[in-house]
Amino acid sequence: MPRIEMQIIAAFPLRIDARFQRLLNRPGRNLVGIVAALWDHVHREGGEAVYYYLLIVIVGIERLIGLVAAHRNAKWAIAQGGKELGLDHYPAMVSMHALLLVSCLVEVWALGRPFIPWLGWPMVAVVVLSCVIRWRCAAALGRHWNPRLIVIPGAPLVQHGPYRWVRHPDYIAVVAEVAALPLIHSAWLTAMVFTLANALVLHERIRLENAALAYV
């Protein structure tokens, strides 16, 4: 086994089972064995928290997919004569959501927040439902969906899907998700701080959006 891989293995008190050991010893499969052994270490050291870390990574990937879709929709909207409003608040909104994910990881890891089943599982359900609502809103808006505030003069208001019943259904989902995601693993400090931060960001966003709707 190359020296660098031996150093990686020696750096962790790993309990590698026979299957992983065989992978390590097979030519061309050393990297697979190292990854498997490191996962075994992280799982043993982090316990059930490792699944929460994985959930946060998945949410982060979902956010990145949303940003890619937003960029594509923004190019289309501007090509249709759209005007972007509220340029100052958008970076704050993106930063807040990114910091939320980081804070979830840090609080659970640094302060040892446990998974409490009677709290965690309902919060998982809230997060899943919130994601469904947000993407249902995105589907209803189609190319008009964007976290950036871009107004196309003369475009009709969307009044189907969740918008039949609520004016800002996606923001209701965001409020619920921001509060619930940290509480899955009882990260109550993150839930408190970012619920407040989200309220401030959304207050400004909704004010700008209502002004934009009047502009249309």
Automatic annotation (TrEMBL):
Signal peptide: none annotated. The chain crosses the membrane at residues 50-70, 90-112, 118-137, 178-201. GO terms for cellular component: membrane. It is a multi-pass membrane protein. The keyword Transmembrane helix applies. Keywords: Membrane, Transmembrane, Transmembrane helix. InterPro entries: ICMT_MeTrfase. GO terms for molecular function: protein C-terminal S-isoprenylcysteine carboxyl O-methyltransferase activity. It comes from the Bacteria. It comes from Mycobacterium montefiorense. This is Isoprenylcysteine carboxyl methyltransferase. Pfam families: ICMT. It is found in: Membrane.
